[in-house]
Structures are given as C-alpha cells and as structure tokens.
Structure to design on (289 residues):
C-alpha cells in the first residue's frame, strides 16, 4: 500500500475562488480518507504577477474551509537552485536550447508563416533559435538575456512512448502538440512545467488532484519526469466549475472569491460538505466534458 500524499499548489496572483476551494477540498479529502498527507505549495515563480498578501490569504481561505496542510509549506521562489539543477540535467542530455526571441519576434515569425500550428498553450514556437549553431548560441547566451526551451522533437524521440494514469485509466502522453515549451524564462530561472515536475517529486506527491485544464500539460510533465529520473504520480483531473454565464471560474473574469463569500456570511462547513458531494452553490455548474 502506498502512503498517499496529495497537494494543493495555487499561484498567489489573486484571491482564491470556488474552483480553488473545490480542488483543495478534493485533494484534502482524498488524503484524509486514506490516512495520507495533504501538502501545500505556493507557486510564486511569476515575478510580474505574484503578491505576498495573496500567499498569506491562501492559508486564511483554506483554514476557513477547515483545511490545514501537513508539514512544511513549499514556496517555489525559495527553491530556484533546484530548478537550475534540473535544467542543468536537461542541458547535459542536450534536450534544451537557449531562446533569444522576444514576444514580438515570435509574433512576427508566426504572422509571416503559412502554417502556424497551435498547441494547448497557444501558437507553437516556430523554432528560430533551435536552428542556431552551437557557437552562435554560446556567443549570444553570454550577451543577451534568454529563455531555455525544450527541444520537443528530440525529447520525444529519445523518450519513446510514455504513459500515465488519470483516475485509473491509462493515458498515452502526446507532448509534441505543445512544441518547444519554455522551461526557464528570461525573468525567472524556471517555468511552471519544470517547477511543478521537480516539486511534485520533491514533496513525494503520490496523487495529483487538479483541474482538467491541466490534463494536457501532464504530457509535458511525464516527459520531464523521464529525463529527470523522477517518479510518475497518479493523476486525477477533476471537472472545472463554471459561473452563471457558463464561463470557467478565473481570477481574471472576476470569479467571486472565498473571502467575499466569507464576508457575506457563508457557512464554510456546509460549503465544504456540499462541494465534496458535488453540490454547487446556486448559479454554478460543472463542465464535465
Ligand atoms: N499553480 C497552478 C495554478 O494555480 C496549479 C498547478 C498544478 O496543480 O499543477 O493554476
């Protein structure tokens, strides 16, 4: 029997909403009902968007729901050397390359090409920097700020077929559709894909419970696990919650916050129990497809 470890890994870029509550409650309940641990990780690697007061508020909102995480809280901004070490491992395997393109360089290149394939995260990187020679790369890398991208075709060819489990069903990873994802940004020595993969292993997470919006990204994480020699947890991607207009709950569309519900006198025990039964407050629905 495995010792179950789940986690909730919010980004402190706004206050938590009902979708976060749902995800955190499912992960917490999954662990608690199996005698396991529930961990919290603060994913604060986006320097332009994170704010410390939102990180503090996460704990407050979780406590209101009756959730107290076990053990140490991992804070990604304190773990940058670990991501650098992981990137170094990928560099040694010749699976990443520096990318000097600005957003407008990329937009121009996409606009000028006949086919602009899209991946789950938007248009795929057209690959100008992948073609640079070794000496060009070295020279420019010394002078110009750069990101690091995964050479997806090379990685997929080297990895061979990869599988992972979603809610007990086998999924065949298809990370190619993402193209050459960024693993370290110009303004941050990591990216979501790299940090999440490194940290789920560092926290010995056995079961990842998160929204279906991250289902496709799991293919990239599975690929990185392969090259970083990390275990593959079991995944459970849950339905996403929609507001009264049928929009996915999101900070940017002004989804009602847990803090707002608290101020309006909502009963957190009832809310938590209802959510765990799949019963949503009036006006919300679940996107099941
Ligand atoms: N930090 C991500 C978010 O807030 C979630 C990461 C994950 O669960 O893998 O959307």
């Amino acid at each position: 029997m495995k010792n179950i470890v789940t986690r909730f890994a919010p980004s402190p870029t706004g206050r938590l909403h009902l979708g976060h509550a749902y995800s955190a409650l499912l992960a917490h309940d999954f662990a608690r009902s199996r005698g396991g641990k529930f961990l919290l990780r603060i994913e604060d690697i986006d320097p332009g968007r994170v704010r410390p007061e939102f990180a503090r508020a996460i704990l407050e909102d979780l406590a209101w729901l009756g959730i107290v995480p076990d053990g140490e809280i991992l804070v990604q901004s304190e773990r940058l050397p670990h991501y650098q070490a992981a990137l170094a491992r990928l560099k040694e395997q010749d699976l990443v390359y520096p990318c000097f393109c600005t957003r407008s360089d990329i937009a121009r290149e996409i606009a000028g090409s006949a086919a602009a394939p899209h991946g789950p995260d938007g248009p795929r990187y057209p690959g100008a920097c992948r073609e640079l020679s070794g000496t060009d790369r070295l020279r420019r890398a010394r002078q110009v700020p750069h990101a690091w991208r995964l050479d997806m075709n090379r990685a997929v060819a080297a990895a061979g077929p990869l599988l992972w489990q979603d809610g007990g069903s086998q999924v065949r990873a298809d990370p190619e559709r993402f193209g050459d994802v960024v693993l370290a940004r110009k303004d941050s020595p990591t990216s979501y894909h790299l940090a999440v993969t490194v940290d789920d292993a560092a926290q010995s997470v056995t079961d990842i419970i998160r929204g279906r919006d991250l289902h496709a990204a799991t293919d990239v994480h599975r690929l990185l696990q392969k090259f970083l020699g990390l275990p593959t947890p079991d995944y459970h991607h849950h339905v996403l919650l929609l507001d009264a207009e049928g929009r996915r709950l999101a900070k940017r569309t002004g989804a009602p916050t847990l803090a707002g519900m608290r101020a309006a006198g909502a009963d957190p025990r009832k809310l938590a129990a209802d959510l765990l039964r799949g019963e949503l407050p009036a006006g919300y629905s679940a996107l099941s497809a």
Q: What stands out?
A: The chain has a mean pLDDT of 95. The chain is about 35% helix and 20% strand. The chain has two domains: 5-78+239-287, 81-184. Residues 17 and 250 are 8 Å apart (CA to CA).
